[in-house]
């Protein structure tokens, strides 16, 4: 048990690996904004070094990085209240990532389900980086001695691994450098599913654009994707139990609940007995009303990429001020001779 009382600090990140989806927004960014406004120190990152674990077109990566930063700000992250930057500008992430990959055990890595999901039957052809990704994610969090990590359900295993890595480091080097960070997974939207397959999560990198709502989609596209979303022929149930074997229906109800900040039970009380033909247009209108101001603001911010780069650069400087001394402590603990 740690003797040290670490300052409460939030860290999280998103990969600029494509368009930000409604899943990323409801499962992560919306929560980032809520945490920023509680007065706790918050650090949010565009994790570009994670994105390159799979192929990224270089020009597209630059654009996606700026677009994700614009999305963060358009969703309500304030670069004056939160530290906002892209990961590769703070070299402590990569340095600590290497050190922690020497602490992490192969047996732990082999249990990571996200690698198995992403690699599928092609594991031999995947990059070493995709396999090692969780050790870099541990470094992202621990470089700031972060205590709380808001994430969607799919990242829970990686945050738990981060705790194991932190505990092993502290134990092996008889140090108290790292806190054991807690995953914060709350709300109705911790796992938004694909609009085409209720058993798969909504993802930026899904080959089917129809499987997701992108934060940059216009009103017609959002309405069309919701109208065409896979459902079943039954009407909506009035009780939550009625959704148990209906993943697509559950997903649309979840999205409605999360967008309107209400519970699934309340949504079913209102719409129980109605057909999807009635429910889908109402959901589409809610989604458009919610997302349109965000995508408009993103477009406005993207018109000035120099300003986005300035914000990211300023955030990186502030992040570096926190991460550098932590990295020094780590180097000192493991016996590395430093300046
Ligand atoms: N479908 C989802 N529902 C709820 N939360 C989600 N998150 C991702 N998908 C959903 C949360 O978004 C944050 C950022 O995730 P990431 O970009 O680091 O990587 P990811 O989890 O692998 O997200 P994607 O969209 O599926 O990206 P790709 O396709 O590039 O792998 C995390 O907090 C995640 O939980």
Task: Tell me briefly what this model is.
This protein is mainly α and 339 residues long.
Structural write-up:
The chain is mainly alpha-helical and 339 residues long. The protein folds into two domains: 9-185 and 305-334, HUPs (Rossmann fold), CATH 3.40.50.620; 209-300, Tyrosyl-Transfer RNA Synthetase (Orthogonal Bundle), CATH 1.10.240.10. It has helices at 22-36, 48-51, 58-74, 92-101, 106-109, 113-119, 128-142, 156-172, 219-227, 247-259, 264-271, 276-302, 305-334; strands spanning 9-14, 41-46, 83-86, 148-150, 182-184. The protein has a three-stranded parallel beta sheet. It has a two-stranded parallel ribbon with strand order 4-5. Strand 1 (9-14), helix 1 (22-36) and strand 2 form a beta-alpha-beta unit. Helix 10 packs across helix 12. The mean pLDDT is 95. Bound molecules: adenosine-5'-tetraphosphate.
| Total discrete domains | 2
**Overall pLDDT, averaged?**
95
Q: Enumerate how many helices there are, as a single number.
A: 13
The count of β-strands is: 5
CA-based gyration radius: 21 Å
Classify the secondary structure makeup into a structural class. Answer: mainly alpha
Strand content: 5-15%
As laid out across the biggest beta sheet, the strand order is 1-2-3
Largest sheet: 3 strands, parallel
Look at the structure and give the CATH class of the largest domain. Alpha Beta
Question: Any idea of the CATH topology of the largest domain?
Answer: Rossmann fold
